[in-house]
Amino acid sequence: MAWTWRFEKADGSETEPAVAPEEFPTQGDAESWIGEVWKELLEGGTDQVTLLDDGSKVYGPMSLHAQDGYEGENV
Fold this sequence. Notes:
- The chain is an alpha+beta fold.
- The chain contains 1 helix and 3 strands, in the order βαββ.
- A hairpin with a 2-residue loop joins β2 and β3 (56-63).
């Protein structure tokens, strides 16, 4: 299994991420990585991400924008 992220604009169209994407051996590894780089992705033009397992959608889209004025709580 390969866990990957799809990087999207707010309208759902795919975008090129500001940070080089990786394939991860576990869901936890993928989620840890997004937790580390979400601000860089957001600053680079990614609005939301979708988690994929071997190309199949697991969940998302998940916004990278802060909610309720507190950054980081939504990721």
